[in-house]
Amino acid sequence: MNAVCNFRKCVTIRLITAFCAALLSATAALAATEVYRWTDENGVVHFVDTPPGDTETQRLEIDEAYRPGTTGAYPAPGDTTTGDGDAPASLADQRREKIKEAHEKRRTEAAERERLCALHRQRLQQVEPVRRVLYTDENGDTVRMDDDERMALVEESKNYLSRNCD
């Protein structure tokens, strides 16, 4: 019987100790919204929740800190505002947008370059092997291209293809 009482006391003490530890950690999480900023001798800026004793610190007020049980501290996925509805997107979102725009610009430029490469390849297939090239001018008349014009077009297309196409 004595052993059972000692066991119950031991369990009770451990439960009380665990409860107190949980309570202290919850209190510490609530108190962690205080942030201090300080700079060390190397110029490195530190942000901590407890100020160092021998260094000049600046206490920062943080309104949007996460507190257990609160909602709205973190934006929903895909939300580009910072929480109050009309604030600008974060720097990371702005950077992502710039990267996306640059990627789209490169994609558009590559498509245009590929279109021009296809046109120059087609021109070479049509003009290079044939000595007599006929075309319709702006008046609707069929005209024969002279050899100097034909060779200039061939040279222009070859130069473009060598500079811009695979």
Structural write-up:
The structure is a single chain. The protein is of the alpha+beta class. Helices cover 51% and strands 12% of the residues. It has three helices and five strands, in the order H-E-E-E-H-E-E-H. It has helices at residues 2-31, 91-127, 147-164; strands at residues 35-39, 45-48, 58-60, 133-136, 142-145. It has a three-stranded antiparallel beta sheet with strand order 2-1-3, with no helix packed on it. A two-stranded antiparallel sheet has the order 4-5. A hairpin with a 5-residue loop joins strand 4 (133-136) and strand 5 (142-145). Helix 2 (91-127) packs antiparallel against helix 3.
| CA(first)-CA(last) distance | 91 Å
Overall mean pLDDT score?
77
Biggest β-sheet, characterized?
Answer: 3 strands, antiparallel
The SS-based structural class is alpha+beta
Principal-axis shape equals: rod-shaped
User: In sequence order, what are the helices and strands, one letter per element?
Assistant: HEEEHEEH
Q: Regions with pLDDT < 50 over 5+ consecutive residues?
A: none
Strand content: 5-15%
Task: Please provide the count of β strands.
Answer: 5
Radius of gyration (CA) equals 37 Å
